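Case study 2.
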Amino acid sequence: MKWALKYLPEAERDFKKLDGSRQVMVTKAIEKVQENPLPAQEGGYGKPLGNKHGRDLTGFLKIKLRGAGIRVVYKLVRTQTEMLVVVIGVRADDEVYEIAARRADKHGL
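Prediction:
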């Protein structure tokens, strides 16, 4: 069963900023994870985040596209089996985690 997929408005803009080939890679990765976005310890594909450089991202998960140098941070809305994409960005300097923390605060996640 595929989980419903929803993007924060900022995450949609992140996606649109990517070039076409990276958009294809991100889409394929999200579709794969969407089949079972649960944390790895529950048999899914998600890699749990915790405390990243002083930012509490407990409850968020990530997808790493190593070859493309991109990370996708998402949160599961378990009551609705919905996967909410919070940020899509370059893997440099853990910037995506800082952005994810700001967006989580802004949207009350």
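DSSP finds three helices and seven strands in the chain.
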